Amino acid sequence: MTTPTADDTPPADREYARELDAADPLADLRERFVVPEGERYMDGNSLGLCSADAAAALDRVVDEWKELAIRGWTDADPDWFHMGERLGDRMAPLVGARAESVVVGNSTTVNIHTLVGSMLDAHGAGTVLVNDLDFPTDHYAIAAQLRQRGLDPDEHLVAVESGDGRTVTTEEIATALEAHDVDIVFMPTVLYRSGQLLDVPAITDLAHEHDALAGFDAAHSVGVVPHEFDEWGVDFAVWCTYKYLNGGPGALAGLYVNERHFDIDPALAGWWGHDKATQFEMRHEFTPADDAGRFQIGTVPVLSAAPLDGALDVTHAAGIEALREKSVALTEYLVALADERLADLGYSVGTPRNPDRRGGHVALEHPEAYRISEALKDRGIVVDYRPPNVVRVAPSPYYVGFETVWTVVEDLRDIAENEVFTEFDRQSGGVT
User: Counting Cβ atoms within 10 Å, is residue 200 exposed (0-12), middle (13-18) or buried (19+)?
Assistant: First the structure.
């Protein structure tokens, strides 16, 4: 797919956008999704849409529950008992991992707790390096794990300070590693606010050069950005499946553990992480699975896992490389249009312009970002706002086309040019 880069000036007309859509090899994917009536959905980096495939997979499991009841654990096709491992097998190619290194289970926050805690126990409790632009739950969980080991997070949770308030550079991480005795580096693959795609292999190499482990929160990249965790030597990673993977609200999370760590004891042991062959012998002695499956904790919630199975059909049918190619084309087009149509109205692009350093969404900054986001929603354009000044626009390659991007930019222009945002109240606090 060929589109103008952000350094070019694309024709700012609707017909050009339609030409791009006509040349899009993934255009038909949209037909597999249910887009809420009357909406232009640009929030797939928060919650992906429901596909017919996901709904069918859920319906299948509900029917199995009706017909088989408890026998579904063994007699469903495929059986429920191995659902976490089987979904992990299906997800492994998306992150460049052997099947045994990936499992689906728990939530992202729980997986941070169990993997960071396990690594601290196995390799000596110490200092964890994060950054000051992280999604908050990462800090909450790591601080809790440090406190449980008698360590003061004020001393042992070190945050790399961003130089520009938007991005975290590999050089800034390197400087922090030189200044502190770090045991674990834990970074996002993509910063949730700005959309910066970090250099995962370079950060992994840096961590290992300083005798630290490299862990990542890949919530904003899995399903839209290919990864090669095995090849890069990543030690562990976590991610959710309800964003670009479209697994449904609160869908089970994924985790990756490099095979060299298969022998460590889980910090949060539970019976679903037990060796499957002997799990129902009900021994009081915990015998963990011999792969990443040991980091499962409680019984897999089958109804929450089922839609992910169908959603992965869509991802595999499209191919992660093709999805990435379209995602880059969409964000390049969005950035180029923002420069051409929005810059004179106070908007700026807060996302890296190099597509190799950009995830699947674009952060548009504006002093009135909150009220602009409200005005967009009033027009049926679903985006989200992140303090202090960011409208996040996520053109998911699964169901968003170039013409939709064009129309959203035109609405952004109209809202600012005609000060439509003044019709909406300023933010008064609460959930954002």
Answer: buried
The verdict on whether 276 is a catalytic residue reads no
Q: How many residues does the chain have?
A: 432
With 0-12 / 13-18 / 19 or more C-beta atoms within 10 angstroms meaning exposed / middle / buried, residue 48 is buried
pTM more than 0.90 = yes
pLDDT classification of 12: cutoffs 50, 70, 90: confident
Q: Which of 32, 40, 86, 243 is catalytic?
A: 243
135/151 same-domain check: yes
> What CATH number is attached to the domain comprising 378?
3.90.1150.10
135 annotated active-site: yes
Known catalytic residue at 326: no
- CATH number at 171 reads 3.40.640.10
What is the residue range of 405's domain? 14-32+319-423
The string of pLDDT tens digits covering residues 165-209 is 999 999 999 999 999 999 999 999 999 999 999 999 999 999 999
Question: What pLDDT, on the 0 to 100 scale, is given for residue 430?
Answer: 44
Selecting among 18, 30, 121, 135, the annotated active-site residue is: 135
Is 142 within a domain? Answer: yes
Decide if 217 is catalytic. yes
Catalytic residue among 242, 244, 256, 402: 242
Co-location of 254 and 331 in the same domain: no
The total number of structural domains that make up the chain: 2
pLDDT of residue 121: 95
Based on the fold, state whether residues 189 and 285 are members of the same structural domain.
yes
Strand positions, DSSP E, 133-277: 157-160, 184-188, 213-217, 236-239, 254-257
Instruction: From the candidates 217, 235, 309, 339, give the one annotated as an active-site residue.
Output: 217
